[in-house]
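Sharing a chain and its predicted structure for anyone who wants a worked example. Both blocks are below, sequence first, tokens second.
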Amino acid sequence: MSLSAQSDRDLLSAYLTEDMSVWKTYVDKNVDLSYEYGYCGYIVSADKEAARPYVQRFKSHILNLKSQMPPGHYEMYMSAVYVFELRLHESIHPVKAMSLAKDAVKLAPSDPIVLSYYGTCLFYAPKPFGSKAEALECFTKAEPLFQAPQYEYSWMKKANEMYIDQCREKLKKN
């Protein structure tokens, strides 16, 4: 994951206060796919022009680190790249993105990061590809797995918790 527990603590604090300038500084200095993924998600929404080099850098790092990744992470991160490129109008691969996300879960069915990512895909995808109920299943399955010590300061753990609440809220309204 990241370089130290202190970095994780600081980055989690920045995430919770929505101070993404801290993340920008961190990803500008470090190759850390989990934070690059999170920062790309943020910057693609906030500033498409500024996002382009970050998405390209993230993609390059994924390709360079493929052999060092845990099962399912390459597919998950490449899925994210396709989603970011779609949002930047650089490519149109929504089916490929969802297919890679599904492949990631098949390769790593007990990895909370992979499960949470797939839940995020299901949460945002339009019907018939997405489903808030299926997303909630993924987030709920990931929740106890995020209790492992290495996720103590994980922004992904907090995001997973937020998505559980959002899914429940949306499902209550329907």
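Comments welcome. The chain has a mean pLDDT of 94.
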